[in-house]
Amino acid sequence: MKQLLLRALCLSTALTLGSVQADPTSVTQDSSALSDIPPPAGVGAAAAPAETQENDQPAAAAEGDLPAGDEAALPPGTNEGLPAGLPPLPAPVMDDAAAPQTAILNQPLTSTVSVAQMGQAQGITLTGGQLQSGIVFTLPTDEVITNAHLNLSLKVSQALAARNTSLQLMLNGQPLGTLPLTASDRASEDYQLDIPAAMVVSSNNLSFKINDADQLLCERDSAQQYQVTILPKTTLALEGQQLNIGTSLRNFPRPFIDPLRMSPASVAMTFGDNITPGEVSAAAILSSWMGIQADYRGISFPVLRAQLPEKNGVVFGHPGEKIGSLTLPDSDSPSLHIVNNPDNPVYKLLLVVGKTDDQLRQATWRLLQPFNLDDAALTVPLQSMAPRKPYDAPRWINTDRPVRLSELLRKDQSLTTTGIWHDALRVNFRAAPDLFLWDGDTIPVQLNYRFPSESWIDEDNSLLNVTLNGTFLRNLTVNKVGLLENIWHRLGGDARQEKFTLQLDPYLIYGDNQLQLYFNIKPKASAPCSVLTNNNIKSRIEDESFIDLSHTRHFTLLPNLSYFVGASFPFSRLADYSQTLLMLPEKPTNAEIGTLLDMAGRSGNATGVALSQNSVVFGIPAGGTLRERLKNSDILSVSTLSQASFNRDMLADSPYELNNHTLGVKVPNTLDKLRGWLTGDWYRQTLDADRYFSSNEDWRGFISYRSPWNSSRLVVMTVATDDNQLSRLHHDMTSARINAGIRGDTAIITDENGIRSFRVGAQFPSGQMPWYMMVVWYANQHSVLLSLLALFCSVLVGLSAYVLLQRHSRRRLQPKNNSNSSGEKKE
Fold first, then answer.
1. Which DSSP string corresponds to 727-768?
2. Would you place residue 769 in the very low, low, confident or very high pLDDT band (cuts 50, 70, 90)?
3. Quick one: signal sequence residues (predicted)?
């Protein structure tokens, strides 16, 4: 990469632009004056404590602002603030060899955030009247940035490049400098920009503007000619110091996860040598809750045994148990502790300690509630968690009543836009994936909307564009359409159309949905240029607008893996997993446990509910209460092909089989084929799936089938050829393409071919529907069987009618024989 210098006329702003293209005509600004740029208000060493206090996070202050002896004043085993009646907590014991010789207050760090991770998956396009835009990114408050680089990738249209204009960049209202906008045949124009570290704070706004935007606005059809796109691969590379925030429980869930961190999180889950199902169950509860907090950013849970993580992590164990160089504190009650990592005190360990599985669950439940104490340890009193009801996930749209669109917005969103040029209004909502409607039924969406009233607006061509999940639905007009309405409007009457009800087809609703509303306002040809930048006009969607799913039912056919990857269904039907059993082999590996925790995190993210009532078993229970739980639960299992004994037991009564550590599909017998043909199930891909399994050496994926222990329940197995393949599944599930390709009851992922899905087993109905509607549904689903039944009834009725008509014919055509036979009988 060559560094090219560009000199600008602006004396107050400068930056270094490192162009990856060896173009001698490119010019960059002189970076020597960067240190002369004054930082934004509130930025700098003197402003750091104020920033910390504003966010109510005093523990995140810079090194110089930490109170003297802060760590010594708050030992890990402090007993201040314990609930009355609970015994004092001893401090965790660390090996002398592992104890640090000197206190470490910070730690070097590096991180990278892309424009896609900042929420702009398609990048930022400046075009037409929207020739300036910005993007917000946040950073954890316990990080101090010492070096920052923006690796900028642009795509510039030829027409815009021909104007010899430039792109101005600003960070937090302070100018960074300008870039020349040139175009080439390459996919992008790449630059590297040095950013003054003092300008990077916890919440930042990076904005872009084309310098002669005002002139471009006055040109007609500028949207089709002048475009520059900040590509989603643009990244911000940061270097800095990780501060020591102390061991206060008030900081939780920091530093393990931070809501201001925009990149994916990774939280190490640590166990002892003899891991128990209760410890994994507690870890699943916490993982699902952290999945809720991580939201769209994503989170993973690497698993360690008998060793401590290098950075932050969570440790599950029993009192007195030694894990690595740390011995867990003795306590008769469940307890929580935040302690310094013995290997590096800047990083912290959260200790979840309990004698029994129930105590571990109690301690984990306490983590789901906010902490209002500054202590580093807490004895947990008796906790209780109310069971959830079916389909009550808070992140799923309510199906008992019409839901206003305003209820579906985030706190920072609004249904009002200003000016002509603006982004679309986006309304995100999630729905249970098993919503059912009869053919011909639709989902009403009522939109009450208001266009601005200005004489220069072309009301005939201005439209409200409505799309759902990328599918165009309708253009709503400003005025009513019709001959009489048009005449009335020309006579000066009010013909505004400010209400319309869309009828959505059920197949348009997915588990995760986005409704987009865009006010496409067109000015008249005679409109002055000044009105194009008028931001005083407003367009809005009224609060009374709603979507109504109240007449839908919960009914579907299972198995369907698309429901599982999209919404963890059917396990999320009861979002706390009170009717779900999490199964692992008798001796699970770290990769198997970590994958199960990843699935727990995905479920929490999909529903907004922690798996507070989950149960974990190692192996298949032979009896007792766990066997009863097995018979009455859906089953989510994780395994690899090396767990041969466990897999054989799991697949004994399924469409799959295990042969010499190779997964295959059983060949259906004649009776199964006949049953499938009669029920109209003609699209199974048994042979194709079996061939695909046998032709791939390394793969990972999912299989699903009817539970052999309860015909109304479902099994989903996460399977891979080995731990290495299983560990790649987390990255696979972050790909929208792979998620969209998972369907049916068999999904196989390989590095070479991506995702392939099949359906090899029979489906069964799941949900609630009145008996008379079930009759109609079965008749609709089993057309062949219904046709054969109708044919049988027709033959039966026909034969009966034939016999009766034959008898009647004989009596009519042979009356003498009938009378003679009657006379003989009388004699």
1. HTHHHHTT-HHHHHH--TTEEEEETTTEEEEE--S--EEEE-
2. confident
3. 1-22
